[in-house]
Amino acid sequence: MDITQTFYDKMAAQYDKLFLDWQSTTREQAVILDKLFAENGFDRTAGVLDCACGIGTQAIGLAALGYTVTASDISDGELAEAAERAEKNVVKIRFEHADFCTLSDTFSEQFDIVIAMDNALPHMLTSEALEAAIKSIAGQVRPGGIFVASIRDYDSILTEKPPYSPPYIHKTEKGQRVSFQTWEWQGDNYKLTQYIIEDEGALQTDKFECEYRATRREEMTRLLYASGCSEVAWKFPEETGFYQPIVVAKK
Question: In this predicted structure, what is the pLDDT of residue 1?
């Protein structure tokens, strides 16, 4: 099992603690994506593959809006958490274990829309790995369909390579919860350590480690065109309301 699978398997039961209100976030992000899909000519009859679904943050929200959603991930821990949350939200989603670098091993069909949100693609630690992932994902998008992904604004981050991210401080009924990340850089790659500190009477600290490669938008754009996309456009938080830049690539 690689470091990415281990990271998400261990975090599965605590991933929602990164949000002030995970349930509200699923609804808010679904509205943002729904608007983005509509701007690109799709209504809620579209078939969606969330190929990095995690605990279902986007998949569950989209299913609640009426989309036909298939969701996959490399982490069995997060898939189990997502399936449980889908049941609690009374939405029907097809879940599959799949590596987004080899999606055709799991899916024979193509989809109207494929998404990979929340900085999933920068887990590819080399340009060759990123190219393989984008080729795999583009292969599951039907002609005329779109691929939608979000990544950190690495074009800005790489100018300074900060050693940590600003903390999120969430007030809870019993105290507060603080989450933050430290980043150890080696070139454009960095080791991320995620800390979650709960101060609710008894102090509890958890940490989880993973690796990323800071991916510039130019590289992502070039690889999307090389993988058969005819149009690639970037949209930024001030336009979409989403917390990261989003790329929309039309097949």
Answer: 54
246-250 sheet: strands from edge to edge: 93-97, 68-73, 47-50, 111-116, 141-150, 246-250, 231-235
Spatial separation of the C-alpha atoms in residues 127 and 24, rounded to whole Å: 35
pLDDT by residue (tens digit) across 17-69?
999 999 999 999 999 999 999 999 999 999 999 999 999 999 999 999 999 99
- The beta strands (E) that lie in the chain are given as 47-50, 68-73, 93-97, 111-116, 141-150, 168-171, 176-186, 189-200, 202-213, 231-235, 246-250
Q: Are 118 and 53 in contact (CB under 8 A)?
A: no
Of 119, 121, 147, the closest CA to residue 133 belongs to 121
Return the closest-CA partner of residue 220 out of 160, 157, 149, 159: 149
Handedness of CA 69, 75, 80, 82 (dihedral sign): negative
Report the CATH number of the 3-153+215-250 domain: 3.40.50.150
**For the chain, domain boundaries:** 3-153+215-250, 157-211
For residue 82, pLDDT beyond 60:
yes
